[in-house]
Design brief:
- This protein has two domains: 4-178, Flavin prenyltransferase-like (Rossmann fold, 3-Layer(aba) Sandwich), CATH 3.40.50.1950; 186-403, Rossmann fold, CATH 3.40.50.10300.
- The chain is 36% helix and 23% strand.
- It is built from 14 helices and 19 strands.
- The chain has helices spanning 15-27, 46-53, 71-78, 89-96, 103-110, 123-127, 129-140, 166-178, 211-222, 250-260, 288-291, 303-308, 326-336, 377-403, and strands at residues 4-9, 31-36, 81-87, 115-119, 144-145, 149-152, 158-162, 186-191, 196-197, 203-204, 226-231, 243-246, 266-269, 276-278, 297-299, 315-322, 341-346, 358-364, 369-376.
- An eight-stranded mixed sheet has the order 12-11-8-13-16-17-18-19, sandwiched between helices. Strands 2-1-3-4-5 form a five-stranded parallel sheet, with helices on both faces. The chain has a two-stranded antiparallel sheet with strand order 6-7.
- The two termini are 31 Å apart.
Length: 404
């Protein structure tokens, strides 16, 4: 599966190997763009990378020649995967502290793509406790660290700190893409709220932003899954690589799900679907007098329950937002709706949840419970998709063994 890869190049003599890395990635069908730190330009010129990548090279954080002078945003949107090779001790230290004082670090902060660092430095710098503390901090925030290798160094010394060879880096990139149990699987994801119209002006809805569902869709596409994202109205941009289906009402979402879920491997119901809709939808704006003191409502179809009745059915993973008795209500709902997994989060007077960039969840299966601490939804999505991949892999392996 080809991807859009942003290669970051920081300062170090190993930067010359990155030119060959770009060539190898392009030969395998990947689209590659390059962003360089100022010190990297002392070792290899931007023109060299432009020639081998076929794209202009990003060098300046604020560049009047780029659209809106914000190249870090366009590069962040471009990338399915960010790889920094070589990654110097300096850029690792700056990333570990969340700095954005040049184009490359700003792109990393602005992007939701997975980031891999391929270190290259003197072996004493690599073993320095400060560098090792930065490595551990970066790992905690989801950065992948590939290498370094051991061998002769440009300074004439020998030790751990060499950049991995370009072919090894390519293998790391493609292993990350293809190694997930979700690679090549079809995942239907619902996201956002629904709107149930009362008249041309008013509607019933809820506070869902869709951020969690969209982050899950992006994380799943980055694992090589075929993602169908069915979304109610949001202000979000659909993730690149996902098939996008826009709906407004619960009835429309139900119809879209049943149309696409038949041949899917996993159904992930992250949408906050309205339980009710007005019994009547006026073609004219209603008055206070015409609505009166009460509103007649009709129950909407339960989408997850409907998917649970399919035979065969996909692996079903639902979300449950609760204000109280989180575990007991989530476990009951999982059984009631024939779900394999339910992901529950507390809403109300707590940090995270609706309208927030943060979330914490508890994941329940028939056998186990797993807690994910409060963290940005983008990071949580990658951890949940990794968990779902492991769960799906174990479940399908068990099913195959039973058939045998």
């Amino acid at each position: 599966m080809s991807q859009s890869i942003l290669l970051g190049v920081s300062g170090g003599i190993a930067a010359y190997k990155s030119v060959d890395l770009v060539r190898r990635l392009r030969e395998r069908g990947h689209t590659v763009r390059v962003a360089m730190t100022q010190s990297a330009q002392s070792f290899v010129t931007p023109l060299t990378f432009q020639a081998v990548s076929g794209h202009p090279v990003g060098c300046d954080l604020l560049d009047a020649a780029t659209e809106a002078a914000m190249d870090h945003i366009s590069l962040a949107r471009f990338a399915d995967q960010i790889v920094i090779a070589p990654a110097s001790a300096d850029i690792m230290a700056r990333l570990a502290q969340g700095m954005a004082n040049d184009l490359l670090t700003a792109v990393c902060l602005a992007s939701t793509a997975p980031i891999a660092l391929v270190p290259a430095m003197n072996h004493r710098m690599w073993h320095n406790p400060l560098t090792q503390a930065n490595v551990q901090r970066l790992k905690q925030f989801g950065f992948a660290i590939w290498g370094p290798a051991e061998g002769a160094q440009a300074c004439g010394e020998y030790g751990l700190g060499r950049l991995l060879e370009p072919e090894e880096i390519v293998q790391c990139i493609e292993k990350k893409i293809s190694n997930s149990p979700l690679h090549g699987k079809t995942i239907v994801i619902t996201a956002g709220p629904t709107r149930e119209p009362l008249d041309p002006v008013r509607f019933i809805s809820n506070r869902s932003s869709g951020k969690m569902g969209y982050a899950l869709a992006q994380a799943a596409t980055q694992c090589g899954a075929k993602v169908i994202l069915i979304s109610g109205p949001t202000a979000l941009t659909p993730p690149k690589g996902a098939q996008f289906v826009s709906v407004e009402t619960a009835l429309e979402m139900h119809q879209a799900v049943m149309q696409h879920v038949q041949n899917s491997d996993i159904f992930l119901g992250a949408a906050a679907v309205a339980d009710f809709r007005p019994s009547e939808n006026s073609t004219q704006k209603s008055t206070k007098q015409s609505v009166g003191s009460s509103l007649a409502i009709t129950v909407n179809p339960d989408i997850i329950h409907a998917v649970g009745q399919l035979n065969p059915k996909p692996v079903i993973i639902g979300f449950a937002a609760q204000t109280e008795a989180l575990e007991s209500k989530a476990r009951s709902k999982r059984i009631e709706k024939n779900m394999d997994v339910i992901i529950a989060n507390q809403v109300g007077h707590v940090e995270g949840g609706f309208d927030s960039d943060m979330n914490s969840v508890d994941v329940y299966t028939a056998e186990e419970a797993t807690h994910f601490d409060l963290q940005p939804k983008v990071e949580l999505a990658h951890r949940l998709i990794e968990w779902i991949g492991h769960y799906y892999g174990k479940k399908t392996k068990h099913s195959t063994e039973n058939i045998r």
